[in-house]
């Protein structure tokens, strides 16, 4: 197996582990339609992992395996953490007491990452406005019970990472920033390429 084939297989394992946890996530009001849409789930999650290096991928795979081993569900927890903004009363009553509490230092580290990524997403939306309109709303201030923002989604996801995974993720974000790269742009470029477009400009032009 070549290095490229091996890391592709690692990414596919991670998407499948997340999908399996997603299938075990209980949604208020019954099963969500997106829980039956493997092609879209695969496209969206794989496009994210295509921007990650091997050490970060391996650490996150270990997080998912360890969660399965110990009875945690990181996907359920991610969506639960988002409800701190979208449904705060229910979060305080039914979720916060049952998930790992994050230290002030951990929260501060996450918020530093989130600020960088929200700026990248805002920049992306300015340059590809039609693709931007197809994204989530941008900031937590825009959350509603029906719509979860990019910022809130990212905060929920980072909150599920182990310390090792967060460390490696932070190093990736710092490296992107130092190189003048935009993680949102590169992730969505991967998304549209998986969807059959040659590049972001072609995908932008195809939007209604």
Which helices and strands appear, and what pairs or packs with what?
Elements: H1 3-23, H2 38-49, H3 54-70, H4 74-86, H5 88-95, H6 104-127, H7 129-133, H8 150-158, H9 163-178, H10 183-194, H11 200-206
Helix pairs in contact: 1-2, 1-3, 2-10, 3-9, 4-5, 4-8, 6-8, 6-9
State the helical fraction. 55-70%
What is the domain total for the residues? 1
Amino-to-carboxy terminus distance: 42 Å
Q: Helix-strand pattern, N to C? A: HHHHHHHHHHH
Count, helices: 11
Mean pLDDT: 94
Which percent range describes the beta-strand content?
under 5%
- Give the biggest beta sheet: none
- Tell me the radius of gyration: 17 Å
Poorly predicted segments:
none
**Overall outline:** globular
* Structural class based on helices, strands and sheet pairing: mainly alpha
Q: How many strand segments?
A: 0
Describe this entry's structure for a reader:
With 208 residues, this protein is mostly helical. It has one domain (3-206). 69% of the residues lie in helices and 0% in strands. It has 11 helices and no strands. It has helices at 3-23, 38-49, 54-70, 74-86, 88-95, 104-127, 129-133, 150-158, 163-178, 183-194, 200-206. The protein is globular.
Give a brief rundown of this model.
The protein is an all-alpha fold and 208 residues long. The protein has one domain. It is built from eleven helices and no strands.
